[in-house]
Amino acid sequence: MSGLERFFRLQEHGTTVATEVRAGVVTFLTMAYILFVNPQILSQAGLPADDVAVATALAAAVAALVMGLWANYPFALAPGMGLNAYFTFGVVLGLGVSWQVALAAVFVEGVLFLALAVSGVRAALLRAIPNSIKIATMSGIGLFLAIIGFEGAGLVVDHPATLVTLGDVKSPLVLLSLAGLVVIAVLMAARVKGAILIGILGVTVACWVLGLTAWPDQLLTVPHLPAETLFAMDFSGLLTGKLLLVVVAFLFVDIFDTAGTLIGVGRLGGFLDEKGELPRANRAFAADAVGTIVGAAVGTSTVTSYVESATGVEEGGRTGLTAVVVSVLFLLSLALTPLFTSVPTAATAPALIVVGALMMRGAKELDWAQIDEAVPAFLTVATMPFTYSIANGISFGIVSYVLIKALRGRFRDVHPLMYVLALLLIVFYAVRTGG
Protein backbone atom coordinates (compact mmCIF):
# COMPACT_ATOMS: atom_id res chain seq x y z
CA MET A 1 0.00 0.00 0.00
CA SER A 2 2.92 2.35 0.68
CA GLY A 3 3.82 2.29 -3.02
CA LEU A 4 0.32 3.47 -3.95
CA GLU A 5 0.48 6.14 -1.26
CA ARG A 6 3.69 7.55 -2.69
CA PHE A 7 2.80 7.27 -6.38
CA PHE A 8 -0.62 8.94 -6.11
CA ARG A 9 0.36 11.20 -3.18
CA LEU A 10 -2.67 10.04 -1.22
CA GLN A 11 -1.73 11.65 2.09
CA GLU A 12 -1.06 14.97 0.37
CA HIS A 13 -4.56 14.89 -1.07
CA GLY A 14 -6.16 13.83 2.21
CA THR A 15 -7.37 10.43 1.07
CA THR A 16 -6.68 6.70 1.53
CA VAL A 17 -6.52 3.61 -0.62
CA ALA A 18 -9.88 2.41 0.72
CA THR A 19 -11.54 5.75 -0.07
CA GLU A 20 -10.11 5.82 -3.58
CA VAL A 21 -11.25 2.25 -4.30
CA ARG A 22 -14.74 3.01 -3.04
CA ALA A 23 -14.86 6.18 -5.16
CA GLY A 24 -13.76 4.23 -8.22
CA VAL A 25 -16.49 1.61 -7.75
CA VAL A 26 -19.16 4.30 -7.34
CA THR A 27 -17.96 6.15 -10.44
CA PHE A 28 -18.03 2.94 -12.48
CA LEU A 29 -21.55 2.09 -11.34
CA THR A 30 -22.89 5.51 -12.31
CA MET A 31 -21.42 5.37 -15.82
CA ALA A 32 -21.58 1.64 -16.58
CA TYR A 33 -24.77 2.27 -18.55
CA ILE A 34 -22.54 3.24 -21.50
CA LEU A 35 -21.68 -0.46 -21.83
CA PHE A 36 -25.37 -1.07 -22.62
CA VAL A 37 -26.21 2.10 -24.52
CA ASN A 38 -23.19 2.44 -26.81
CA PRO A 39 -23.62 -0.93 -28.58
CA GLN A 40 -27.33 -0.13 -28.90
CA ILE A 41 -26.66 3.17 -30.67
CA LEU A 42 -23.64 2.27 -32.81
CA SER A 43 -25.14 -1.03 -33.98
CA GLN A 44 -27.75 1.07 -35.82
CA ALA A 45 -24.85 2.41 -37.89
CA GLY A 46 -23.97 -1.15 -38.89
CA LEU A 47 -21.22 -1.89 -36.38
CA PRO A 48 -21.48 -5.34 -34.75
CA ALA A 49 -22.90 -4.86 -31.25
CA ASP A 50 -20.54 -7.45 -29.73
CA ASP A 51 -17.51 -5.63 -31.12
CA VAL A 52 -18.80 -2.26 -29.92
CA ALA A 53 -19.30 -3.59 -26.39
CA VAL A 54 -15.70 -4.79 -26.31
CA ALA A 55 -14.39 -1.58 -27.89
CA THR A 56 -16.33 0.55 -25.41
CA ALA A 57 -14.80 -1.23 -22.43
CA LEU A 58 -11.28 -1.17 -23.91
CA ALA A 59 -11.37 2.51 -24.85
CA ALA A 60 -12.76 3.50 -21.45
CA ALA A 61 -10.17 1.38 -19.65
CA VAL A 62 -7.21 2.84 -21.57
CA ALA A 63 -8.39 6.44 -21.22
CA ALA A 64 -9.08 6.11 -17.49
CA LEU A 65 -5.70 4.43 -16.97
CA VAL A 66 -3.86 7.31 -18.69
CA MET A 67 -5.90 9.82 -16.69
CA GLY A 68 -5.05 8.07 -13.44
CA LEU A 69 -1.39 7.28 -13.97
CA TRP A 70 -0.31 10.40 -15.89
CA ALA A 71 -2.67 13.21 -14.90
CA ASN A 72 -3.38 11.84 -11.39
CA TYR A 73 -7.01 12.96 -11.39
CA PRO A 74 -10.11 10.92 -10.39
CA PHE A 75 -11.82 11.58 -13.72
CA ALA A 76 -13.27 8.66 -15.67
CA LEU A 77 -13.74 8.55 -19.42
CA ALA A 78 -15.70 6.53 -21.97
CA PRO A 79 -17.31 6.94 -25.42
CA GLY A 80 -19.41 10.09 -25.11
CA MET A 81 -23.18 10.23 -25.10
CA GLY A 82 -24.29 12.54 -27.90
CA LEU A 83 -21.12 11.94 -29.86
CA ASN A 84 -22.13 8.30 -30.36
CA ALA A 85 -25.58 9.44 -31.51
CA TYR A 86 -24.02 11.97 -33.89
CA PHE A 87 -21.73 9.23 -35.22
CA THR A 88 -24.74 7.02 -36.04
CA PHE A 89 -27.55 9.36 -36.98
CA GLY A 90 -25.67 12.42 -38.15
CA VAL A 91 -22.71 10.89 -39.96
CA VAL A 92 -23.38 7.31 -41.04
CA LEU A 93 -27.14 7.44 -41.55
CA GLY A 94 -27.40 11.20 -42.15
CA LEU A 95 -24.50 11.67 -44.57
CA GLY A 96 -24.59 8.17 -45.99
CA VAL A 97 -20.95 7.29 -45.31
CA SER A 98 -19.74 3.92 -44.11
CA TRP A 99 -19.04 3.33 -40.44
CA GLN A 100 -15.45 2.53 -41.41
CA VAL A 101 -15.00 6.06 -42.79
CA ALA A 102 -16.73 7.51 -39.72
CA LEU A 103 -14.26 5.67 -37.47
CA ALA A 104 -11.44 7.19 -39.50
CA ALA A 105 -12.93 10.64 -38.84
CA VAL A 106 -12.96 9.88 -35.12
CA PHE A 107 -9.33 8.72 -35.29
CA VAL A 108 -8.21 11.91 -37.04
CA GLU A 109 -10.16 13.99 -34.52
CA GLY A 110 -8.35 12.18 -31.71
CA VAL A 111 -4.95 12.88 -33.24
CA LEU A 112 -5.84 16.56 -33.70
CA PHE A 113 -7.12 16.73 -30.13
CA LEU A 114 -3.85 15.24 -28.86
CA ALA A 115 -1.85 17.80 -30.85
CA LEU A 116 -3.97 20.64 -29.47
CA ALA A 117 -3.63 19.31 -25.94
CA VAL A 118 0.17 19.16 -25.94
CA SER A 119 0.77 22.34 -28.00
CA GLY A 120 -1.33 24.82 -26.07
CA VAL A 121 -3.52 25.67 -29.08
CA ARG A 122 -6.44 24.20 -27.18
CA ALA A 123 -6.33 27.09 -24.73
CA ALA A 124 -6.49 29.64 -27.56
CA LEU A 125 -9.46 27.90 -29.14
CA LEU A 126 -11.30 27.78 -25.83
CA ARG A 127 -10.77 31.50 -25.38
CA ALA A 128 -12.05 32.24 -28.89
CA ILE A 129 -15.44 30.54 -28.59
CA PRO A 130 -17.93 32.65 -26.59
CA ASN A 131 -19.21 31.11 -23.40
CA SER A 132 -22.81 31.24 -24.62
CA ILE A 133 -22.03 28.94 -27.55
CA LYS A 134 -20.12 26.54 -25.29
CA ILE A 135 -23.07 26.25 -22.92
CA ALA A 136 -25.57 26.00 -25.76
CA THR A 137 -23.60 23.21 -27.40
CA MET A 138 -23.97 20.96 -24.38
CA SER A 139 -27.64 21.89 -23.95
CA GLY A 140 -28.31 21.17 -27.62
CA ILE A 141 -26.70 17.76 -27.32
CA GLY A 142 -29.02 17.15 -24.38
CA LEU A 143 -32.06 17.74 -26.59
CA PHE A 144 -30.48 15.66 -29.34
CA LEU A 145 -30.13 12.75 -26.91
CA ALA A 146 -33.67 13.29 -25.67
CA ILE A 147 -35.29 13.01 -29.09
CA ILE A 148 -33.31 9.85 -29.80
CA GLY A 149 -34.44 8.46 -26.44
CA PHE A 150 -38.08 9.40 -27.13
CA GLU A 151 -37.86 7.63 -30.47
CA GLY A 152 -36.20 4.57 -28.95
CA ALA A 153 -38.89 4.39 -26.27
CA GLY A 154 -41.64 4.65 -28.89
CA LEU A 155 -42.93 7.89 -27.37
CA VAL A 156 -42.26 9.79 -30.59
CA VAL A 157 -42.96 8.45 -34.08
CA ASP A 158 -42.89 10.01 -37.51
CA HIS A 159 -45.97 11.60 -39.06
CA PRO A 160 -46.47 12.68 -42.70
CA ALA A 161 -48.24 15.94 -41.76
CA THR A 162 -46.56 17.07 -38.55
CA LEU A 163 -43.18 15.30 -38.93
CA VAL A 164 -43.50 13.83 -35.42
CA THR A 165 -46.34 12.78 -33.16
CA LEU A 166 -47.04 10.82 -29.99
CA GLY A 167 -46.53 7.07 -30.20
CA ASP A 168 -48.72 4.30 -28.81
CA VAL A 169 -48.57 4.98 -25.07
CA LYS A 170 -50.51 1.76 -24.39
CA SER A 171 -47.73 -0.37 -25.86
CA PRO A 172 -46.03 -2.57 -23.23
CA LEU A 173 -42.57 -1.49 -24.35
CA VAL A 174 -43.51 2.20 -24.21
CA LEU A 175 -44.99 1.76 -20.73
CA LEU A 176 -41.86 -0.04 -19.54
CA SER A 177 -39.67 2.74 -20.90
CA LEU A 178 -41.78 5.32 -19.08
CA ALA A 179 -41.54 3.27 -15.90
CA GLY A 180 -37.76 3.07 -16.30
CA LEU A 181 -37.59 6.83 -16.75
CA VAL A 182 -39.56 7.44 -13.55
CA VAL A 183 -37.53 4.90 -11.57
CA ILE A 184 -34.22 6.43 -12.69
CA ALA A 185 -35.41 9.94 -11.82
CA VAL A 186 -36.64 8.87 -8.38
CA LEU A 187 -33.42 7.02 -7.60
CA MET A 188 -31.28 9.93 -8.75
CA ALA A 189 -33.35 12.35 -6.67
CA ALA A 190 -32.71 10.05 -3.68
CA ARG A 191 -28.98 10.09 -4.56
CA VAL A 192 -28.85 6.33 -5.10
CA LYS A 193 -25.55 5.36 -6.68
CA GLY A 194 -25.86 3.69 -10.07
CA ALA A 195 -29.45 4.91 -10.57
CA ILE A 196 -29.23 4.85 -14.38
CA LEU A 197 -27.72 1.38 -14.35
CA ILE A 198 -30.45 0.10 -12.00
CA GLY A 199 -33.15 1.54 -14.27
CA ILE A 200 -31.67 -0.07 -17.38
CA LEU A 201 -31.32 -3.45 -15.67
CA GLY A 202 -34.86 -3.28 -14.27
CA VAL A 203 -36.49 -2.60 -17.63
CA THR A 204 -34.28 -5.19 -19.31
CA VAL A 205 -35.27 -7.96 -16.88
CA ALA A 206 -38.94 -6.97 -17.19
CA CYS A 207 -38.70 -7.24 -20.99
CA TRP A 208 -37.13 -10.69 -20.69
CA VAL A 209 -39.62 -11.98 -18.13
CA LEU A 210 -42.64 -10.69 -20.07
CA GLY A 211 -41.34 -12.19 -23.30
CA LEU A 212 -41.09 -8.82 -25.05
CA THR A 213 -37.45 -9.40 -25.96
CA ALA A 214 -35.26 -12.50 -26.07
CA TRP A 215 -33.10 -13.62 -23.16
CA PRO A 216 -29.34 -13.59 -23.80
CA ASP A 217 -27.90 -16.89 -25.03
CA GLN A 218 -25.17 -16.65 -22.40
CA LEU A 219 -24.07 -14.25 -19.65
CA LEU A 220 -20.30 -14.74 -19.65
CA THR A 221 -17.73 -15.01 -22.39
CA VAL A 222 -13.98 -15.24 -22.68
CA PRO A 223 -12.65 -11.68 -23.25
CA HIS A 224 -11.50 -11.11 -26.81
CA LEU A 225 -10.58 -8.34 -29.21
CA PRO A 226 -13.22 -7.04 -31.66
CA ALA A 227 -13.55 -9.32 -34.69
CA GLU A 228 -14.75 -6.89 -37.38
CA THR A 229 -14.10 -3.37 -36.09
CA LEU A 230 -10.46 -3.76 -35.05
CA PHE A 231 -8.40 -1.41 -37.26
CA ALA A 232 -11.33 -1.22 -39.68
CA MET A 233 -10.91 2.52 -40.33
CA ASP A 234 -11.23 3.68 -43.94
CA PHE A 235 -9.39 6.94 -44.64
CA SER A 236 -10.26 7.08 -48.35
CA GLY A 237 -13.20 9.47 -48.00
CA LEU A 238 -11.81 11.89 -45.45
CA LEU A 239 -10.65 14.55 -47.90
CA THR A 240 -14.19 15.55 -48.88
CA GLY A 241 -15.54 18.80 -47.44
CA LYS A 242 -18.46 16.91 -45.98
CA LEU A 243 -16.29 14.73 -43.76
CA LEU A 244 -13.85 17.49 -42.88
CA LEU A 245 -16.79 19.25 -41.23
CA VAL A 246 -17.57 16.03 -39.40
CA VAL A 247 -14.01 15.90 -38.03
CA VAL A 248 -14.30 19.53 -36.93
CA ALA A 249 -17.67 18.84 -35.28
CA PHE A 250 -16.27 15.85 -33.39
CA LEU A 251 -13.27 17.93 -32.32
CA PHE A 252 -15.33 20.96 -31.27
CA VAL A 253 -17.79 18.99 -29.16
CA ASP A 254 -15.05 16.85 -27.64
CA ILE A 255 -13.01 19.88 -26.60
CA PHE A 256 -15.85 21.72 -24.91
CA ASP A 257 -17.50 18.63 -23.48
CA THR A 258 -14.21 17.63 -21.87
CA ALA A 259 -13.39 21.18 -20.77
CA GLY A 260 -16.81 21.62 -19.17
CA THR A 261 -16.55 18.32 -17.33
CA LEU A 262 -13.00 18.86 -16.09
CA ILE A 263 -13.73 22.36 -14.86
CA GLY A 264 -17.07 21.41 -13.28
CA VAL A 265 -15.85 18.29 -11.51
CA GLY A 266 -12.51 19.97 -10.78
CA ARG A 267 -14.33 22.74 -8.95
CA LEU A 268 -16.31 20.16 -6.97
CA GLY A 269 -13.13 18.40 -5.89
CA GLY A 270 -11.21 21.59 -5.11
CA PHE A 271 -8.65 20.96 -7.86
CA LEU A 272 -8.82 24.40 -9.53
CA ASP A 273 -6.16 27.01 -8.82
CA GLU A 274 -6.71 30.66 -7.88
CA LYS A 275 -7.31 31.55 -11.55
CA GLY A 276 -10.05 28.95 -11.83
CA GLU A 277 -7.89 26.74 -14.04
CA LEU A 278 -7.10 23.05 -13.69
CA PRO A 279 -3.41 22.24 -13.11
CA ARG A 280 -2.09 19.54 -15.47
CA ALA A 281 -5.09 20.20 -17.72
CA ASN A 282 -3.08 19.31 -20.82
CA ARG A 283 -2.42 15.85 -19.38
CA ALA A 284 -6.11 15.39 -18.66
CA PHE A 285 -6.99 16.42 -22.21
CA ALA A 286 -4.31 14.09 -23.55
CA ALA A 287 -5.93 11.17 -21.73
CA ASP A 288 -9.17 12.01 -23.53
CA ALA A 289 -7.37 12.15 -26.89
CA VAL A 290 -5.53 8.86 -26.34
CA GLY A 291 -8.84 7.21 -25.44
CA THR A 292 -10.41 8.53 -28.65
CA ILE A 293 -7.54 7.29 -30.81
CA VAL A 294 -7.61 3.83 -29.20
CA GLY A 295 -11.40 3.76 -29.37
CA ALA A 296 -11.46 4.47 -33.10
CA ALA A 297 -8.83 1.78 -33.67
CA VAL A 298 -10.89 -0.88 -31.87
CA GLY A 299 -14.31 0.27 -33.05
CA THR A 300 -16.15 2.97 -31.10
CA SER A 301 -16.99 6.67 -31.27
CA THR A 302 -15.26 9.59 -29.55
CA VAL A 303 -14.14 9.16 -25.93
CA THR A 304 -14.70 12.01 -23.52
CA SER A 305 -14.55 12.77 -19.79
CA TYR A 306 -17.70 11.82 -17.89
CA VAL A 307 -19.59 14.17 -15.60
CA GLU A 308 -20.50 11.06 -13.58
CA SER A 309 -16.96 11.35 -12.22
CA ALA A 310 -18.52 13.81 -9.79
CA THR A 311 -20.10 10.88 -7.93
CA GLY A 312 -16.67 9.44 -7.18
CA VAL A 313 -15.37 12.84 -6.12
CA GLU A 314 -18.35 13.16 -3.77
CA GLU A 315 -17.35 9.77 -2.32
CA GLY A 316 -13.92 11.20 -1.49
CA GLY A 317 -11.91 10.33 -4.60
CA ARG A 318 -9.09 12.83 -4.99
CA THR A 319 -6.35 11.12 -7.00
CA GLY A 320 -5.72 9.06 -10.10
CA LEU A 321 -6.14 5.86 -8.09
CA THR A 322 -9.90 6.35 -8.44
CA ALA A 323 -9.54 6.43 -12.23
CA VAL A 324 -7.30 3.34 -12.19
CA VAL A 325 -9.98 1.43 -10.26
CA VAL A 326 -12.52 2.46 -12.92
CA SER A 327 -10.13 1.24 -15.62
CA VAL A 328 -9.79 -2.18 -13.96
CA LEU A 329 -13.57 -2.53 -13.63
CA PHE A 330 -14.07 -1.74 -17.32
CA LEU A 331 -11.56 -4.47 -18.19
CA LEU A 332 -13.39 -6.95 -15.96
CA SER A 333 -16.66 -6.07 -17.72
CA LEU A 334 -15.31 -7.60 -20.95
CA ALA A 335 -16.46 -11.00 -19.67
CA LEU A 336 -20.09 -9.74 -19.67
CA THR A 337 -20.28 -8.71 -23.33
CA PRO A 338 -23.25 -11.03 -24.20
CA LEU A 339 -25.31 -9.39 -21.46
CA PHE A 340 -24.60 -5.87 -22.70
CA THR A 341 -25.59 -6.64 -26.30
CA SER A 342 -28.92 -8.22 -25.36
CA VAL A 343 -30.29 -5.13 -23.61
CA PRO A 344 -33.36 -3.82 -25.54
CA THR A 345 -33.77 -0.28 -26.83
CA ALA A 346 -36.73 0.21 -24.50
CA ALA A 347 -34.32 -0.14 -21.56
CA THR A 348 -31.63 2.24 -22.80
CA ALA A 349 -34.03 4.94 -24.04
CA PRO A 350 -34.80 6.23 -20.51
CA ALA A 351 -31.06 6.63 -19.89
CA LEU A 352 -30.74 8.79 -23.01
CA ILE A 353 -33.62 10.99 -21.87
CA VAL A 354 -32.25 11.38 -18.34
CA VAL A 355 -28.72 12.17 -19.51
CA GLY A 356 -30.25 14.64 -21.97
CA ALA A 357 -32.02 16.34 -19.08
CA LEU A 358 -28.78 16.53 -17.08
CA MET A 359 -26.99 18.15 -20.03
CA MET A 360 -29.67 20.88 -20.16
CA ARG A 361 -28.70 22.20 -16.73
CA GLY A 362 -26.25 24.70 -18.16
CA ALA A 363 -29.00 26.51 -20.09
CA LYS A 364 -29.87 28.46 -16.95
CA GLU A 365 -26.49 30.18 -17.17
CA LEU A 366 -27.33 31.77 -20.55
CA ASP A 367 -28.28 35.44 -20.56
CA TRP A 368 -31.65 35.12 -22.30
CA ALA A 369 -32.33 38.84 -21.90
CA GLN A 370 -29.36 39.76 -24.12
CA ILE A 371 -30.64 39.03 -27.62
CA ASP A 372 -27.29 39.02 -29.41
CA GLU A 373 -26.21 36.23 -27.04
CA ALA A 374 -29.57 34.47 -26.71
CA VAL A 375 -30.42 34.03 -30.41
CA PRO A 376 -27.13 32.32 -31.42
CA ALA A 377 -27.37 30.14 -28.32
CA PHE A 378 -30.98 29.23 -29.12
CA LEU A 379 -30.10 28.39 -32.73
CA THR A 380 -27.30 26.16 -31.48
CA VAL A 381 -29.66 24.34 -29.12
CA ALA A 382 -32.67 24.06 -31.43
CA THR A 383 -30.89 23.17 -34.67
CA MET A 384 -29.30 20.03 -33.24
CA PRO A 385 -32.51 18.04 -32.58
CA PHE A 386 -34.49 19.65 -35.42
CA THR A 387 -31.88 18.79 -38.07
CA TYR A 388 -30.59 15.67 -36.29
CA SER A 389 -27.07 17.05 -36.42
CA ILE A 390 -24.67 18.39 -33.79
CA ALA A 391 -22.52 19.87 -36.57
CA ASN A 392 -25.40 21.94 -37.94
CA GLY A 393 -26.17 23.28 -34.48
CA ILE A 394 -22.60 24.37 -33.82
CA SER A 395 -22.32 25.90 -37.28
CA PHE A 396 -25.54 27.91 -37.01
CA GLY A 397 -24.51 29.14 -33.58
CA ILE A 398 -21.07 30.35 -34.68
CA VAL A 399 -22.24 32.01 -37.90
CA SER A 400 -25.23 33.74 -36.31
CA TYR A 401 -23.12 34.96 -33.38
CA VAL A 402 -20.55 36.56 -35.67
CA LEU A 403 -23.14 38.11 -38.00
CA ILE A 404 -25.30 39.56 -35.24
CA LYS A 405 -22.36 41.02 -33.34
CA ALA A 406 -20.77 42.44 -36.51
CA LEU A 407 -23.98 44.02 -37.78
CA ARG A 408 -24.42 45.66 -34.39
CA GLY A 409 -20.97 47.15 -34.77
CA ARG A 410 -19.59 45.20 -31.83
CA PHE A 411 -16.61 43.83 -33.72
CA ARG A 412 -14.35 43.71 -30.68
CA ASP A 413 -16.75 41.35 -28.88
CA VAL A 414 -15.82 38.65 -31.38
CA HIS A 415 -12.48 36.86 -31.29
CA PRO A 416 -10.63 37.02 -34.67
CA LEU A 417 -10.64 33.22 -34.86
CA MET A 418 -14.45 33.29 -34.79
CA TYR A 419 -14.52 35.35 -38.00
CA VAL A 420 -12.34 32.73 -39.68
CA LEU A 421 -14.56 29.88 -38.47
CA ALA A 422 -17.74 31.67 -39.56
CA LEU A 423 -16.35 32.39 -43.03
CA LEU A 424 -15.27 28.79 -43.52
CA LEU A 425 -18.69 27.52 -42.45
CA ILE A 426 -20.53 29.93 -44.76
CA VAL A 427 -18.40 28.77 -47.68
CA PHE A 428 -18.99 25.14 -46.79
CA TYR A 429 -22.78 25.43 -46.64
CA ALA A 430 -22.79 27.50 -49.85
CA VAL A 431 -21.01 24.83 -51.86
CA ARG A 432 -22.35 21.66 -50.24
CA THR A 433 -24.38 19.52 -52.60
CA GLY A 434 -26.42 17.53 -50.14
CA GLY A 435 -26.31 15.30 -47.05
Please give a structural write-up.
A hairpin with a 3-residue loop joins β2 (about 155-160) and β3. The protein is globular, with a radius of gyration of 21 Å. The chain has one domain. Strands 1-4 form a two-stranded antiparallel sheet. A two-stranded antiparallel ribbon has the order 2-3. About 65% of the residues lie in helices and about 5% in strands. The protein is mainly alpha-helical. α11 packs across α12 (about 280-300).
Low-confidence spans: none
Q: Kindly, what is the distance between the CA atoms of the first and last residues, rounded to a whole number of angstroms?
A: 56 Å
Helix/strand class: mainly alpha
Mean pLDDT: 89
* Biggest sheet layout: 2 strands, antiparallel
* β-sheet strand percentage: under 5%
